[in-house]
Design a protein that fits this description.
With 152 residues, the protein is of the alpha+beta class. It has helices at 14-21, 25-31, 123-127, 132-151; strands spanning 2-10, 35-42, 51-58, 61-74, 78-87, 91-103, 106-117. It is globular and about 45 Å long. The N and C termini lie far apart (42 Å).
């Protein structure tokens, strides 16, 4: 299993950043443009245990998988969302988003991804995996949140 954790400071209010992670599909697509569909399959009152069917386009291929909410917290100064899914019956992936309010206009965003191969022959791919995708995702969230904050 591989795990990457990265943190970035975003010059935007915590609620502004949170709406991209825990909001509409349109907001989610601003930071995850490859997501073409995100439909609720099972919604729980406490959010944890909720399941969404997501379609993700990579080039000409579209993958479909169910994402389960594993952890959820929506406090004023601290927000957490952890989801898990199986990709192409090859990888078990979790994504953990943590937001902490630094002040009214600044948020700390920590992103942790774990990737566990489900088949012996894909373990080799993980050996060469880097944190590049994680870093690019953090930068995208920062750029989108800060750009939208300026417009308001």
């Amino acid at each position: 299993m591989k795990q990457w954790t990265k943190e970035i400071e975003i010059n935007a209010p915590i609620e502004q950043v949170w709406k991209f992670l825990d909001g509409s599909v349109e907001n989610m697509q601003k930071i995850m443009p490859q997501v073409v569909e995100h439909k609720p399959i099972k919604i729980t009152e406490e959010v944890v245990g909720s399941v969404y069917r997501q379609k993700y386009r990579e080039g000409k291929r579209t993958e479909e998988y169910d994402i389960e909410t594993l952890e959820y917290s929506n406090a004023t100064n601290e927000k957490k969302l952890k989801v898990g899914f199986t990709l192409a019956k090859m990888f078990e992936i979790t994504a953990f988003y943590e937001l902490n309010k630094i002040n009214d206009n600044k948020t700390s965003f920590t992103y942790t991804v774990t990737n566990r191969p489900l088949k012996w022959f894909v373990k080799l791919f993980l050996f060469f995996a880097t944190d590049k995708v994680v870093v690019e995702f953090l930068e995208r969230v920062k750029n989108v949140a800060e750009a939208e904050t300026v417009r308001q």
